[in-house]
Amino acid sequence: MPAFARITVLVAALTLVACGKQRPTQAVRDSVEHFGKDVAKQDYSDLCKNLLADNLVNALEGSGVPCELALKTGLSAAKDPKLSIKTIAVNGDRALVGVHSTASNQPPSDDTLSLIKEKGAWKISSLAQPQPQPPQKP
C-alpha cells in the first residue's frame, strides 16, 4: 500500500474514533445551554435533578427549603431571561464558563459559572461568580 493511502486510512480511522467522543468543551457548553433553557422555561425540577451539582443542591436546601422552591424564589422574577456563553475553560473534571445574561426587567450581567464532572455529566457547582471588572477611570 502506498504511503499516501496508509496516511489516508489512518486519518479516516482517527476521524471515526474522534467522532465517537464528545469534546469536553462541547459537553460543558451543552450543559450550560441546557441550564439557560431551563431557566427560561422555569423548569426548576430539571435544574435541580439534572444540571446542578450535589454541593449546590445541598447548599440551596441547607436553609430547609427544597431546591425547586429556592430556585423559583431566586429566578422567577427574571422576565425573558437569556444566557450567552463567552468563554469556556476546562481543566480535568472542572470547568469555568464566562456567561452574559440578560432579562427584560434587569440589567445585563457578566458572570462565571463553575462546573464539575459528577457521575459522568457536567453539572453547575456554583451559579454566579462575578467576573472581575476593570478599575474605573478617575
Which short descriptors sum up this protein?
43% helix, globular, Nuclear Transport Factor 2, Chain: A, alpha+beta, four-stranded antiparallel sheet, disordered N terminus, 138 residues, single chain
Describe it.
The chain is an alpha+beta fold and 138 residues long. It has a single domain (23-130), classed as NTF2-like, domain 1 (Nuclear Transport Factor 2, Chain: A, Roll), CATH 3.10.450.100. It is built from five helices and four strands, in the order H-H-H-H-H-E-E-E-E. The chain has helices at residues 3-19, 24-41, 44-51, 54-61, 67-75, and strands spanning 82-91, 94-103, 106-118, 121-130. The protein has a four-stranded antiparallel β-sheet with strand order 1-2-3-4. Helix 2 (24-41) packs antiparallel against helix 3. It is globular, with a radius of gyration of 20 Å. The model is unreliable at 2-20 (pLDDT under 50).
Strand element count:
4
CATH superfamily: NTF2-like, domain 1
SSE topology string:
HHHHHEEEE
Strand order, main sheet: write it out.
1-2-3-4
How many helices does DSSP assign? 5
CATH class group: Alpha Beta
N-C termini distance: 71 Å
Strand percentage, roughly? 25-35%
- List low-confidence stretches: 2-20
Q: What's the overall geometry?
A: globular
- Number of domains in the coordinates? 1
CATH T-level topology = Nuclear Transport Factor 2, Chain: A
What structural category arises from helix and sheet content? alpha+beta
Query: Main sheet, how many strands, which sense, barrel?
Result: 4 strands, antiparallel
